Amino acid sequence: MTSAIGRPWASAVVRMRNDPAVALAVFMLWALLALFVLYPLAALVARMMVDHGAFTTAGIAAVLTDRHQIRAFWNSLLLAFLVGIAGTAVGFLFAFTAARGRLPRALLTAVDAAVLLPLVSPPFTTAIAMIFSFGPRGLITYDLLGLKGVTVYGLTSTLFSEVLTYFPIAYLTLRPLLAAIDSNVEGMALSLGASRWRVFRTVTLPLTIPGLANAFLLLFAASLADFATPLILAGNNFPVLPTQAYLQITGLFDLRGGAALSFVLLLPALAVFLLQRYWVSRRYYVTITGKGAGQTPFDSIAPAVRSVLLLACALVASVIVYFYALLLYASVVVALGANHAFTLQHYRVIFTDGLKAIRDTLIIAGFAMPLGGLYGILLGYLITKKTFAGRRTMELVSMINYALPGTIVGIAYLIAFNDPPLELTGTALIIIACYIFRYGPTGIRATVALLQQIDKSLEEASQGLGAGSGTTFRRVTLPLILPAFFAGLGVVFIRSMTAISATIFLVSISWTLITVKILENITELSLGPAAAFSVLVVVIVFAAIAVIGRVMRFFRAPGAMPTTSLLGG
Amino acid sequence: MTISRRLMERAARGLATIPLLGLALAAQFLSIPAIAADTLNVYSIWPENWARPMFEEFEKATSIKVNFVRFSSGEALARVIAEKNNPRVDVLFGGPVETFAAGINEGLFEPYKPPSFAALPSRFRHADGQWIAIADDPLVFMSNDKFIKDNGLKAPASWNDLLAPAYKNMLQMADARTSGTAVTRIFSILEVYGRDENKAFDYMKKLRPNVQLYTKSGGGGTLPVGLGQAGAGIFFIVDALDTKAKGYEVTISFPQEGIGTAAEGIALIKGAKNPALGKKLIDWATSPAMQNLFAKYKINFVPAHPDVALEPGLAAVLKGAKIFAIDADYAGANRKRIVDRWVAEVLNP
């Protein structure tokens, strides 16, 4: 753990001077953060507060005192809290089962695939499948159960859909963590006479707490920023703030009010973040010490419990598979609900009219992925393992674009980068930068969580033997945090393929994206092409994940990091 | 152990080169692709499957290539506002006139009067030429055939028919905060009640329990009605006829009291890089040259230009329907107040 939290400023500066590699990296990251996080935000605030050359807060005050917006604010917190709790629980269930359930390889891959499905398609696909299945004429509620007058809109279905969409984030955060816990520790506790439940409660669970906290934070933030799901499912009786902010901008053309609503959202996101930092930082978690011996595999869960866990996972997985089977079906029939004749016409459409969008999306995601992954581990490493002035601030700043609703990030980028000399609108770079700084934080969190498990003695040994911090990072720390790198990289790629809220404002005449095409097709009622595009996205992302998994297997060192099949590998 | 360590080292070294590679390749995206002089840039609010054939025909007629992206009206307007100091497009194409009215307040447009200006009725043009109408789009009732049959109803033929208990929680229509369709609907109801706001709002409040969802976009409810997730709704005729054309079993009907219609506009962006080309598109779009093509591409808008004949199929649907224009001045002056009141009294009572 970072033992130097309270170290005086002066000595930190001295340390930095003695370590030019760290100083350079810190300087570069600050420059990037200033350009792509702080400056757009400042540009947005300036646009918000200045009305025809005069300073004003009237527009903002009007929005913030509106009782409907206040209600929406509390609704958002409630929803984000519930999504955080439920999503972390489901994510843990899957991660624990996958890491400790001793599943056969094929089953593990199947579970991984099902878990990743929601992550690899645009968020509103689940929402649309919900309406098809649980609406007044839903396939399940009406055709199967014969229920009448069912309402699909509201808190329950929004929560359900968001948990299904976002729990894979928790899974991705917790899985490597659980895999990294030295099973010898659990084995020792077991052989000392503790019951399996006691081992789980007093050894495994406490070791996972930083990961659980991280997962909760990520889910809370994800829900707080999601406008697409509530837009389709929340209905009129459960307004939430991200959707209100989006509507304020796109519907009422009120950039000021929309931005103000989003800034309100930043407060709870920040609060949860600080709470989590404080809470996690008081615990000491080291299981990789460099002094470890080989691992002894053992059964850490009883067979009966294993069956229950498997059943629960199977249930969640089957709901997901059903949703996506429905999507696949919609892509090969003429018009779902009206004409169920088989056709490949929708795929023909997306590979002719939609070809440019597919090409553009792949190019952009291809660039965002490695850069985002690298950004994640570099920043995560520096803030966890190095002491430098403004370390906490850097961590906080790096989370801003993730915590802010995408609509605001998109508008901020559009305003900030429209004029020379920083004229980036209309280029691919603006979209790539948006992805890196918006989705890179997943990699940062994963790196931080993983590094908190690595004892400082490993690096100190390296430095004691004369290696510089650059060499130590490359040869000692980097291999240990490779799983976090690939988790971060995977998430950036997946989000590059599936995100819409920010980038809908950044696509241009020169560069467009598949997700924008999907939303467009949905609003044009061309459900077929929308479904075909979604299926294509799923296929591309799965192919990419398989490649990443293969690469990881190639680099995996036996005995060092048993990261079995992270990202479906 | 040695082998694996070497592998890890190789991995680490490989990773270290990624940023350099990435930066080198990313550099080429910094430059904005040069756009040819005879290319026009447009934000289209019309869906791509209608806008694309129109622009292809325009290119055929004038050899001017149109680069376009499609956005919903709110998104398009938000972008034009954000890009105000350095406009990316020359023309804003399609979309309800009230979007353009909001744009005028932001000073987004360059007034221009095309040759058709004089021929157009006054409600199809802004007095100074800030926008010009290219089409007209009446509202309709659209109901799901199976729902109507199951409940022993008839396709709604009066605003009061929608108050029937059978529709409880089964109507979908647009949200007035985001949709021009909804604003046109509310002003229709006001007209029906002789602009007696209290009576009109009483009606809307009575209708509220029957509304399952107020959708973000005007056409958002057409698919649920097509699928039977909702029983009926109020939509623009283009969206309703499109649903029918997709094969969904729906019926289009009109209230005997009458229903409103909204014009679709086009405007030149202030500070446009290619104003001359933009004007050519406006000339073409506001003339019979484009509007005669609606029928060919099955675009069910009513042409704005008086010289263009209504397509017979569309004429048959509209036959006998009582449709009135929404008074632009009255709507413009009262829009914000009425929408605010709708939000406070109807949406969130």
Task: Give me the secondary-structure topology.
The complex is a heterodimer of chains A (569) and B (349).
Chain A: H1 9-17, H2 20-49, E1 50-51, E2 54-55, H3 58-64, H4 67-100, H5 105-116, H6 124-134, H7 139-144, H8 155-180, H9 183-191, H10 196-225, H11 228-233, H12 241-250, H13 255-281, H14 303-332, E3 333-335, E4 339-342, H15 345-352, H16 355-385, H17 391-403, H18 406-416, H19 428-451, H20 456-464, H21 469-498, H22 514-523, H23 527-555
Antiparallel strand pairs in A: 1-2, 3-4
Chain B: H1 2-30, E1 39-44, H2 48-62, E2 65-70, H3 73-82, E3 91-96, H4 97-105, E4 109-110, E5 132-144, H5 145-150, E6 171-174, H6 180-192, H7 197-207, E7 211-215, H8 222-227, E8 232-236, H9 237-245, E9 250-253, E10 259-269, H10 275-285, H11 288-291, E11 302-303, H12 312-318, E12 323-325, H13 328-347
Parallel strand pairs in B: 1-2, 1-3, 6-7, 6-8, 10-12
Antiparallel strand pairs in B: 3-10, 4-10, 5-8, 5-9, 5-10, 5-11
Please characterize this protein's 3D structure.
The complex is a heterodimer of chains A (569) and B (349). Chain A is mostly helical and 569 residues long. In chain A, 72% of the residues lie in helices and 2% in strands. Chain A has one domain (18-54, 67-568): MetI-like fold (Orthogonal Bundle). Chain A has a two-stranded antiparallel ribbon. Mean pLDDT of chain A is 79; it is low at 1-8 and 557-569. Chain B has 349 residues and is an alpha/beta fold. Chain B folds into two domains: 39-136 and 263-314, Periplasmic binding protein-like II (D-Maltodextrin-Binding Protein, domain 2); 138-261 and 323-347, Periplasmic binding protein-like II (D-Maltodextrin-Binding Protein, domain 2). In chain B, strands 1, 2, 3, 4, 5, 6, 7, 8, 9, 10, 11 and 12 form a twelve-stranded mixed sheet that branches. In chain B, helix 2 (48-62) links the parallel strand 1 (39-44) and strand 2 (65-70). At the A-B interface, helix 12, helix 16, helix 18, helix 19 and helix 21 of A face helix 1, helix 2, strand 2, helix 3 and strand 7 of B.
